[in-house]
Amino acid sequence: MNKTWNNKAWFLVLPVLLLVAFSAIIPLMTVVNYSMQDTFGNNQFFWAGTDWFTDVLHSDRFWNALARNLIFSFVILAIEIPLGIFVALNMPKKGIGVPVCLVLMALPLLIPWNVVGTIWQVFGRVDIGLLGHYLRILGVDYNYTQDPVDAWATVIVMDVWHWTSLVVLLCYAGLVSIPDAYYQAAKIDGASRWSVFRYIQLPKMKRVLLIAVLLRFMDSFMIYTEPFVVTGGGPGNSTTFLSIDLVKMAVGQFDLGPAAAMSIIYFLIILLLSWVFYTVMTSQDAKG
């Protein structure tokens, strides 16, 4: 039996495609244009070819910022994914505790990024912040404005506080979708808690974990507002990630050509790493 296809649905998608083209593709073409030209103002441009890309790729400044980004993203994933799974496993599945826990988990996600940075900037100050004040009472020499280790710890803890809830909610959604028959069969077979997690819960959470890993990696790799508000990229350049360095180059130094080239390289790196994550995790899911 031959199927007839109705292509009229594309007319409903057309406004979305036009909006995406206007808000994404056109600005991207503008960035590509700037990345291959040089300007001295007065709207006068000079062809530079791939010189800006070569300069960026041979710059220690770029590679150092990229290394900080990669370290930060992998530390965030190593903390937030296991922590999110643990919290989701211990959340109630029935009763009044369910909506209470869901609301509490959703609260950090509702706070804007700049407000999160401001909260932790004040919270960590040694003179008026609760965290800095009590750490000083406990004898801990903590000062995120002067010590790079303290600055990194503050930014990491801040991100964990802000975004672990997303992993928790995704994992919880995967857990509640598991039929009770699986647990009843495991109980009859005398399966341990670890066996239930390994053979029932974890396989059912693989798809939501794929979404969680991709979302958290992309967001952590593009982090800008929170560390910029808290540390400004300091002390020194210890928390200057690619996004912060890019803004400093484009806005602070007004080097539009190198900034445009760096932004394209930045975009391609995110695209490549996200594709690697997706390919690896989906291939393992297919094998399972």
From TrEMBL:
It is found in: Cell membrane. Residues 66-277 form the ABC transmembrane type-1 domain. PROSITE patterns: ABC_TM1 (PS50928). One of its GO terms (cellular component) is plasma membrane. It is a multi-pass membrane protein. It comes from the Bacteria. The keyword ATP-binding does not apply. Belongs to the binding-protein-dependent transport system permease family. This is ABC transporter permease. It comes from Pseudorhizobium pelagicum.
